[in-house]
Specification:
The protein is built from 19 helices and 12 strands. The chain is an alpha/beta fold.
């Protein structure tokens, strides 16, 4: 809860005002039984009808005042809790955006989603209820006990003797339930992940007739969530019945002891009537306090999970700029770069290459060979464990993020398309002139746009499901080209294009973006054969480097691939 205090500070004044209003309404509620006791014990026996009406009117005013003050305080609590949660959710989303790729790998997307949704909701409910019941219940509890002691200290001891029993029960329940609710939120992360994977892969699941398998997979994690929720509910469910039982037994004792004291003449009948009302208030207040502790358990568990993200230290910080070398530096340079995602085994080992501006780098290799890892390091989504990545002779770790990102136009292997128009997807929230958007679409061979009704204003549904695979890739390439990037990164971005379109795309890039340095990851040699430098990777190591002609002479694996795909070379040569 410590982190939450930071978000409460701007609203302390508003919250204090809410507390004062709530206190006033609750104090008026506490006066009602006292006024009734005065009427029964003093005004009725004296036959003073005017005083009876006066005190009766005061009771009505107290009731209406209690109603109005409580409504106002409840609305104010909703306003402050909503604003605090809004700020918390904003900062959480912003921090999630600032996490490095490695940190997001550790957190997982499903956990990030549940923290941003269900955890912030739990905190919101805690803040709202603590300002409602969290103020009213203790005031009724303490105020009711004080009024009872003022009326009859002996009879009040019956209640005081019972309160420690309830306090011990509440403490034990809270101590046990907080870890359970933390586990519940962790399992909820897994539920979100399973649903997310199912929705994303629904077409594949149906095509492979794995619907029943997915149902069972969801049922398994759903059962775990239900089980932990049931166990947490069983623990917290003890509080209300135990508190209710103890207090109602106390209520019975109050009636019995009070009856004897009235009969012996040491207490008036109005006192016992007021006692019964105060005892009922205290009973409801105590039950409210137990509900607050249940909400506290959920709120604390969620607040800790949110704080874990907010307190995550900055990763991939920008290092102080180094003095640039006087000699002309290559546009892109990898120098003895080694990297591992997990720290167990290497995903890329001792990689070195240089690329001049306007040149094209092709990267070829089987799945898991380290192709996309090179792109991740170039974009500084990760930092290398050893070695240096440079752009224009400057270590990428010393380049401010905004400046670094502006250098790139990127099409990732698993890129995404948003709901909106084609033009909106190409601009992607950037201030790009219409002519540049149209030129990018033309260079990306996205001629299908002109054939669609509305052209650039044609609607695209979620994930681009009303576009073919090739149309999606050309749209994404147009997005990457629209800002005329210094470096163009294409991660298997033409796999869905036919050979003629792929060739036309490469020709357009050579003619219209000759000053753009291009890094291409592909499985087809036809997409790479014109590259100035081709790296052939296997298990994170370079087994071949050079242009197409050189590799056809020096790299057996490249020869085999060329022979298989294009009939060139000689298998096994």
């Amino acid at each position: 809860m410590g982190k939450l205090k930071t978000y409460l500070q701007p609203y302390w004044g508003f919250i204090i005002l809410t507390v004062l209003i709530k206190f006033t309404g609750t104090a008026l509620e506490l006066l009602i039984p006292y006024l009734m006791e005065i009427i029964i014990d003093f005004k009725v026996p004296a036959g003073k009808l005017g005083d009876i009406y006066l005190y009766g009117g005061l009771m009505i005013l107290c009731a209406f005042g209690c109603l109005l003050f409580n409504i106002l305080a409840n609305r104010m609590s909703a306003i402050s809790s909503g604003k605090i949660t809004k700020a918390l959710r904003h900062d959480l989303f912003q921090r999630l955006q600032g996490l490095s790729a490695r940190q997001m790998d550790d957190l997982t997307i499903s956990s990030a989603e549940s923290r941003l949704t269900s955890d912030t909701y739990n905190v919101n409910q805690f803040l709202a209820r603590i300002q409602r019941m969290g103020i009213r219940a203790p005031i009724l509890l303490i105020g009711g006990i004080a009024m009872m002691f003022a009326m009859d200290p002996v009879l009040s001891l019956v209640l005081v003797a019972l309160l420690p029993i309830i306090a011990v029960v509440v403490w034990l329940v809270t101590k046990t339930s907080v870890p359970m609710y933390t586990d519940q939120q962790s399992i909820l992360d897994r539920v979100v992940r399973v649903v997310q994977e199912n929705i994303t892969g629904i077409r594949v699941i149906k095509a492979l007739s794995k619907t029943e398998y997915e149902k069972q997979r969801f049922e398994t994690v759903n059962e775990e969530l239900s089980d932990i929720g049931f166990r947490a509910g069983m623990v917290t469910g003890v509080t209300n019945p135990v508190a209710s039982l103890v207090l109602r037994l106390g209520l019975t004792l109050v009636v019995l002891v009070g009856a004897f004291r009235v009969d012996s003449g040491v207490m008036k009948p109005g006192v016992i009537t007021a006692f019964l009302q105060y005892f009922t208030m205290i009973l409801n207040a105590m039950l409210g306090v137990t509900r607050i502790f249940v909400m506290w358990s959920k709120g604390e568990a969620s607040a800790k999970r949110i704080a874990q993200v907010l307190d995550t230290p900055e990763d991939l910080t920008v290092l102080p700029a180094q003095e640039e070398s006087a000699k002309a530096a290559p546009h892109i340079e990898f120098e003895n770069v080694t990297f591992s995602y997990t720290g167990v085994g290497t995903n890329l080992e001792n990689l070195s290459f240089r690329l001049e501006q306007g040149q094209t780098l092709g990267i070829l290799g089987p799945t898991g060979s380290g192709k996309s890892t090179i792109l991740n390091l170039l974009l500084r989504l990760y930092d290398p464990d050893k070695g240096t990545v440079r752009i224009n002779g400057q270590d990428v770790r010393t380049i401010p993020y905004e400046q670094l990102r502006q250098k790139f136009g990127v099409v990732f292997q698993n890129d995404f398309i948003t709901e909106g128009t084609i033009g909106h997807n190409i601009r992607f929230f950037r201030d790009i002139p219409e002519l540049a958007v149209e030129a990018a679409a033309k260079h990306a061979q996205a001629h299908f746009i002109a054939e669609k009704e509305g052209g650039m204003e044609a609607e695209v549904v979620v994930r681009g499901n009303n576009l073919s695979g090739g149309q999606k890739q050309r749209l994404l390439i147009a997005r990457a080209l629209a800002a005329d990037p210094e470096i163009l990164v294409l991660d298997d971005a033409s796999s869905a294009l036919d050979y003629a379109t792929d060739a036309a795309l490469r020709q357009a890039l050579r003619e219209n973006h000759r000053h753009t340095t291009t890094v291409v990851v592909a499985q087809r040699i036809s997409s790479l054969r014109h590259a100035d430098l081709i790296l052939v990777l296997q298990d994170g190591q370079v087994i071949g480097a050079g242009n197409h002609a050189q590799l056809m002479q020096s790299c057996q694996e490249y020869q085999i691939i060329a022979h298989t795909q294009m009939g060139e070379g000689k298998e096994g040569a």
